[in-house]
Amino acid sequence: MSKGPSGFIDADQCEQGLPWLWDEPPQAATATLILAHGAGAAMDSPFMQRMAQGLAARGVRVVRFEFAYMAQRRVDGRKRPPNPQAQLLQQWCDVHAQVRQRVAGPLAIGGKSMGGRMASLLADELGAVALVCLGYPFYAAGKPEKPRVAHLAELRTPTLIVQGERDALGNREAVAAYALSSAIDLHWLAAADHDLKPLKASGYTHEQHLDTAVQVVAEFLAARQ
Questions:
Q1: Model pLDDT for residues 103-141, shown as the tens digit of each residue
Q2: Under DSSP, is residue 89 helix (H, G, I), strand (E, B) or coil?
Q3: In whole angstroms, what is the distance from residue 5 CA to residue 17 CA?
Q4: CA distances from 102 to 12, 32, 133, 168, 206 (A)
Q5: Under a CB-based contact definition with an 8 Å cutoff, are residues 51 and 133 in contact?
Q6: Coil/strand/helix, residue 17
Q7: Are 74 and 110 in contact (CB under 8 A)?
Q8: Rounded to two decimals, what is the model's pTM?
């Protein structure tokens, strides 16, 4: 198998499409979204599968990839922490460059939790047409007193954050206190947690919230063609 400059197996020559996955729309794509996974779940987790397939059905090409630590976990089965931030950001840049060479048209970036946060640190620099964050980690677990939002005040890239109202890494009350860029649109899901799963008492189901997330992301990207 041949490898590109960043060491990824070329998707065209890898039977399983790893360590990246392309979900193509049934017809011509209106946009492409590079979607990165969160810290603890791989690119083919049920959440990532649902989002990628749902968006593809709505005309968005979705490219998923794995950070090096997660790709290594797939090889040896050993859990390990994410790579240092500098390495995660470099890998994002490498993947973005490779996808940009392969596709024409609007190219957006984003991800679940950590994957979205890393994308948010690069969105302006990469000139992304849009940024999509699903369950944004406004602060680390148990550390609401140390928000990670300074760069979000200056963000210029049109951004959509789909967030659960009771997200343990950024609930509605906490986020209301942050100074966020006017480029950021927040879409709140009722009684939902970090994985967009609602309380049963809310009357909503996880499936409904995931469908809503897919719909709002597709509409957001369609408005930026």
A1: 999 999 999 999 999 999 999 999 999 999 999 999 999
A2: helix
A3: 17
A4: 11, 11, 23, 37, 34
A5: no
A6: coil
A7: no
A8: 0.92
